[in-house]
Amino acid sequence: MSTQIDSLDHITIITNNIESTMHFYVNIIGLSKDESRPPFNFNGAWLSANNRAIVHIIEKNDHVHKDQSPTLDHIAFRVLDIDKMKNILNKNIINFIEQKTPDGKVHQLFIKDPNGIKIELSKNT
C-alpha cells in the first residue's frame, strides 16, 4: 500500500497559558505568529515556519477538553544551525540534553516547552 501522506501538516497543543507557550515557540524555537488563523470561537494562535502554520495553540477549555489526556511523546524540529540553537537555549537558561544518533548522522538537542512537552531540535551532521 502506498501512502497518500506527503508530510506532517501541524501539531496542536492544548495549554493553560497561551502567552507562555507562544513566547517559548516564538522567542526560543524561532517560529512566527501566523495572522492567517481563521476567527474560531475559541482562543488560540497559529505559529509558522517558512510561511506555513505548523504549530497550533489552543487555550484549554475544561468543558471541551476535560477527558483528553496527552499521549504525545515529542515534537521534532529540524534546525538550520545546531550551535546557534544551543546558544539561544543557554542564553535563555533552558536546560537541554545533547546527543547524536547511534550512527552519528543526526545531532540532537532535547528540551521541554512550558507545558512539559518534549521537543527535539535536530540537524543532520
Task: Please tell me about this protein's structure.
- The chain has 125 residues and is of the alpha/beta class.
- The chain has a single domain, classed as 2,3-Dihydroxybiphenyl 1,2-Dioxygenase, domain 1 (Roll).
- The radius of gyration is 16 Å and the shape is globular.
Q: What share of residues are in beta strands?
A: 35-45%
Number of helices: 3
Question: CATH topology, what is it called?
Answer: 2,3-Dihydroxybiphenyl 1,2-Dioxygenase, domain 1
Shape summary:
globular
Specify the CATH homologous superfamily. 2,3-Dihydroxybiphenyl 1,2-Dioxygenase, domain 1
The appropriate CATH architecture is: Roll
Give the domain tally.
1
- Count all strands and give the number: 8
Q: Give the terminus-to-terminus CA distance.
A: 32 Å
Q: How large is the radius of gyration?
A: 16 Å
Question: What's the gist of this structure?
Answer:
The protein has helices at residues 18-28, 62-65, 82-91, and strands at residues 11-15, 32-34, 44-49, 52-59, 74-78, 97-100, 106-112, 118-124.
Compile the SSE list and pairings.
Layout: E1 11-15, H1 18-28, E2 32-34, E3 44-49, E4 52-59, H2 62-65, E5 74-78, H3 82-91, E6 97-100, E7 106-112, E8 118-124
Parallel strand pairs: 1-4, 5-8
Antiparallel strand pairs: 2-3, 3-4, 6-7, 7-8
What labels describe this entry?
125 residues; alpha/beta; 2,3-Dihydroxybiphenyl 1,2-Dioxygenase, domain 1; 4-stranded mixed beta sheet; 3 helices; globular
